[in-house]
Design a protein that fits this description.
Chain A: Its cofactor is FAD. The complex is a heterodimer of chains A (370) and B (302). Chain A has 370 residues and is of the alpha/beta class. Chain A contains nine helices and 18 strands. Chain A has three domains: 95 residues, Translation factors (Elongation Factor Tu (Ef-tu), domain 3); 107 residues, Nucleotide-binding domain of ferredoxin-NADP reductase (FNR) module (Rossmann fold), CATH 3.40.50.80; 82 residues, Beta-grasp domain (Ubiquitin-like (UB roll)). In chain A, 20% of the residues lie in helices and 27% in strands. Chain B has twelve helices and no strands. Classes of the chains: A alpha/beta (370), B mainly alpha (302).
Chain lengths: 370, 302
């Protein structure tokens, strides 16, 4: 017996009479465990009556319905939006690095870092760069949201937490400035040792230069590629790190990779970076899934995972890492051929199961035990 | 446990408290692990080693219970926390399993003890084939038990993050990284099980009664584990025994949590206004994760 999942999970009360052997005298059943088993079983019987006065589970709706108070052009193709409560209510507090889930009028949901002042409890600010060849979310923000538009947001949530320390190096690349800006301001207000490198294609494309100009110029290096060329290495960016600094980095993937590779040789000590969501699907082909229990019949497009499609119809489906390593979304396959892309299942397990977060189908159809 | 809610100056945003959780795809290599990874201290080594025997089964059971609790949740943000929690716990279980496999391959047979733990979590605390109200009640009861155990794992996590004495004693660096990565994630997600319990039930009596069961059983399993490992350590004398006075010694030196620290960690759970966020430091946990070799390698997908 190994994991509870792998054993008979419908064990009846009588099922645990197989008391495990004693640790030292292996031929006899362990007496303490016999007592423990009896104790917990008795306890479980009593707990069955707990439902009587148990309060019902109350649904929690955390949607915030806000309005766009102001749209401001911050740079070429970058706008910032100030969001407020329609009746001026106080908004939930946040800390540097936090983001909002923003539900756009089309129903798309996008995450944007909060880039305003965390001590301002009456407005949120986000900034969005228009990506004409993106997935349409940023274009929708630019083209449809204007002062007075209503938006629903959820959060704030913090996936890039800002830790108090004595020495910082902040690295921002392009629109990656958004989570970094409140961090820089907070560090400056605290009077600790910090340096800030802000890279971008050109000054015209880099938002918030006016606000950054108000910070101590000796600690800030504005680094447009038009003047300095594309950063050659992480080491170049890390050059300004104070001894033992904690690095906060947000920018394009090559920038983060460069910083990571060169960090050990630098004066900096620790690296925090904004984590990107699940990597894009490579070489996916569309397939069809049937869910045996719920009866859903779903089409999985080439650029989406089975999990993301299933979630829309079965919201309680279990998953966690969405990258095929934690094992949470293991699902039994009742029919069809699986293209396994996970890093966790053994060959024996693969014969009957798949990780729906990353794995796909080689056959046209899959039937899953969901 | 240091209960330092960081005091911030007025107008400051303070330290991060709740963070969005995600599992980290860590891996560890145990080929070079010395038998007594706290040098010259078999007792301290084996006392902490008990965790490798308890946790894989225990944490898989957490995942199993929480997966069943997911459909009961009516708060999308809490469900998100629970999903992050499940992934982290699954990685903890697998990582400790790696140490366990190393022990089994190197002459320390842990199976008799682990089989007992598996029986406890798989059968006694496993699913009982109930449906309807009874089934739901058994899920919630076990969520309350997980919340009680998580009070201790948060205490232990904070302890190991603070345990500078282990560094001074020259403890194995990879083992320390495993324990601190795990400890840091325990501190990072310490509120999730309790918040889930609050959401699904939240009654004081149920909270304290599950702790009244969990605390003594946890202590008993640990003591049995130390005794078992000391008795089966192939490098120790046949008559080697785990003695209470060894624990007094290692506790005093700071190589293991002391009995006094354990006892002090318990009463807060019985306070009406208890919340896990009142204890431990999320900042310290996150700061460790930003320099943990295993966590950093995992974050960058190497």
């Amino acid at each position: 017996m190994t994991a509870p999942e792998k054993t008979g999970t419908t064990t009846s009360m009588a099922g645990h009479e197989q008391i495990p052997p004693d640790l030292y005298r292996r031929r006899r059943a362990d007496r303490s465990y016999r007592m423990l088993g009896a104790l917990i079983t008795g306890y479980e019987r009593l707990s069955r009556y707990s439902w009587r006065r148990r309060p019902p589970v109350v649904a929690v709706n955390r949607d915030l319905h806000l309005v766009v108070d102001e749209v401001r052009q911050q740079a070429d193709e970058v706008v910032s939006l100030r969001l407020v409560h329609p009746r001026g209510h106080t908004l939930p507090a946040w800390q540097p690095g936090a983001h909002l889930d923003v539900v756009l009028p089309s129903g798309r949901m996008r995450q944007y870092s909060l880039c305003g002042d965390p001590t301002d409890r009456h407005s949120y600010r986000i900034a969005v760069r228009r990506l004409a060849d993106g997935d349409g979310g940023s274009v929708e923000v630019h083209d449809t949201l204007q002062a007075g538009s209503g938006v629903t947001v959820r959060g704030p949530r913090n996936a890039f937490p800002f830790v108090t320390t004595e020495r910082y190096l902040f690295l921002a690349g392009g629109i990656g400035i958004t989570p970094i800006l409140p961090m820089v301001r907070t560090a400056a207000a605290r009077g600790v040792d910090w340096h800030f490198v802000y890279a971008g294609r050109s000054r015209e494309s880099m938002p918030f230069l006016d606000e950054i100009a108000q910070l101590d110029p000796h600690r800030v290096w504005i680094r447009p590629d038009t003047h300095y060329g594309i950063p050659a290495s992480g080491a170049e960016l890390l050059e300004h790190a104070p001894e033992g600094a904690t690095v906060y980095c947000c920018g394009p993937a090559p920038m983060i990779t460069g910083v990571r590779l060169d960090l050990p040789a630098s004066r900096a000590e620790a690296l925090h970076f904004e984590r990107f969501s699940a990597p894009p699907i490579v070489n996916g082909t569309p397939f069809h899934i049937d869910l045996a229990h719920s009866g859903h019949s779903l089409q999985v497009p080439a650029d989406r995972s089975a999990l993301s499609v299933i979630r829309e119809h079965v919201p309680e489906v279990a998953y966690s890492c969405r990258q095929g390593f934690c094992g949470t979304c293991k699902t039994r396959v009742l029919a069809g051929e699986v293209e396994h892309r996970d890093h966790v299942l053994t060959d024996t397990e693969r014969a009957e199961n798949m990780m729906i977060c990353v794995s796909r189908a080689t056959s046209q159809h899959l039937k899953l035990d969901l | 446990m240091s209960s330092d809610k960081n005091v911030s100056p007025p107008g400051d945003v303070g330290d991060p408290d709740r963070v969005a959780l995600h599992a980290r795809n860590v891996s560890f290599d145990w080929a070079e692990l010395p038998r007594h990874w706290v040098p010259n201290d078999p007792f301290a080594t084996q006392m902490i080693n008990v965790l490798h025997l308890l946790l894989p089964e225990g944490e898989r059971w957490f995942c199993h219970v929480f997966k069943q609790a997911l459909p009961l949740i009516r708060d999308e943000q809490l469900a998100e926390d629970v999903r992050g929690f499940i992934g982290q716990e699954a990685m903890h279980a697998e990582s400790h399993q790696g140490v366990l496999d190393h022990f089994d391959a190197h002459g320390l047979d842990t199976r008799p003890y682990v089989d007992q733990i598996a029986w406890l979590f798989g059968k006694v605390l496993g699913d009982r084939g109930y449906g309807g109200k009874q089934g739901q009640e058994w899920i919630i009861e076990r969520v309350a038990i997980v919340a009680a155990i998580e009070h201790f794992t948060a205490f232990l996590g904070q302890w190991v993050l603070d345990a500078a004495e282990l560094d001074r004693a020259g403890a194995d660096a990879t083992m320390l990284d495993l324990l601190r990565w795990h400890g840091a994630e325990e501190v990072e997600h310490r509120s999730v099980a309790y918040d889930l319990f609050l959401h699904l039930d939240g009654r004081y009596f149920r909270r304290v009664r599950t702790m009244a069961i969990a605390a003594p059983v946890f202590a008993w399993l640990w003591a049995r584990g130390v005794r078992y490992l000391m008795a089966h350590d192939p490098t120790l004398d046949e008559k080697a025994k785990a003695r209470w006075r060894d624990w007094l010694r290692t506790g005093k030196r700071g190589l293991t949590p002391s009995y006094r620290q354990f006892l002090r960690s318990l009463p807060p759970y019985f306070r009406a206004q208890y919340h896990p966020s009142q204890h431990g430091s999320t900042s310290q946990a996150i700061a460790y994760l930003a320099k943990s070799p295993a966590a950093q390698a995992a974050e960058h997908g190497s």
